[in-house]
Amino acid sequence: MKILKQLHRVWFMLLVFIFFLLFFPFYYLSSRNERFYPVLNFFRRLHSFLASALAGIFYVYHVEQRLPAGATYIYCANHTSNLDIMVFCILAKGSYHFMGKEELLKNPILRLFFKTIDITVNRDSKISSFRAFKKAGENLDKGMSLVIFPEGKIDDQYPPRLHSFKNGPFRLAIDKNIPIVPVSIADIWKVLWDDGSRLGSRPGRCRIFVHAPVSVTGLSLADDEQLRDHVFEKIKSKLTDQ
């Protein structure tokens, strides 16, 4: 069984790499100008769907409330797998960007995105965090939704647990008056935990619960912890295996 999971991981990573090479001209050209970021995101969506589907990995979205096209949100989700990025490449529409750890600049595929459309942050540096959230705020002002994993890390224990959230995304939401969409990624870690290097991966169906947007209208920055805890409980409510 372990050998089959490792073979599946190799096959999946090969698919990811092949489609990256096929789409690279589109990625490169559309990353040169912010006007073409929706085009870049269209190919990220196609890339994620094709690589996952051909590996037998499918995402089942349970959406509590339809999200209008063109609306700007801050998506907050738990984080247990590298597949989490693909979940949002398929879920989010139009203009959006990710915030992720600085180490992603070393990833040969993700580097292109985190040097252009997406934002990296060194979570051990207050200056880096300030700059990252300042840039995210500027992007939100332009109508670009933000995808962020407020735990700030993937748990190194298996099965993974939900860790406490950082305050940054919630202060940003209040400051910019942008609704937060809590997303519970329920069992994707069973298909591929972390980067799959230890346990491999396998085909499967992954459940994603997209909660109704949480309005921040009327809140002040002093309410950031209350908002953080509310979103935490929303996400935790669907994580029955954690």
TrEMBL record:
The record ties this protein, via SUPFAM superfamilies, to: Glycerol-3-phosphate (1)-acyltransferase (SSF69593)
This protein's pathway: Lipid metabolism
Alphabetically sorted, this entry's keywords are: Acyltransferase, Lipid biosynthesis, Lipid metabolism, Membrane, Transferase, Transmembrane, Transmembrane helix
Q: Does the keyword Oxidoreductase apply?
A: no
Database matches in SMART domains? PlsC (SM00563)
Domain Phospholipid/glycerol acyltransferase, by residue range, is 73-188
Q: Where are the transmembrane segments?
A: 12-30, 42-61
Does the UniProt entry include the keyword Plastid?
no
Q: Which Pfam families has this protein been placed in?
A: Acyltransferase (PF01553)
A Gene Ontology BP annotation from the UniProt entry: phosphatidic acid biosynthetic process
Q: Which GO terms describe its molecular function?
A: 1-acylglycerol-3-phosphate O-acyltransferase activity
Q: Which InterPro entries match?
A: Plipid/glycerol_acylTrfase (IPR002123)
Listed name of the protein = 1-acyl-sn-glycerol-3-phosphate acyltransferase
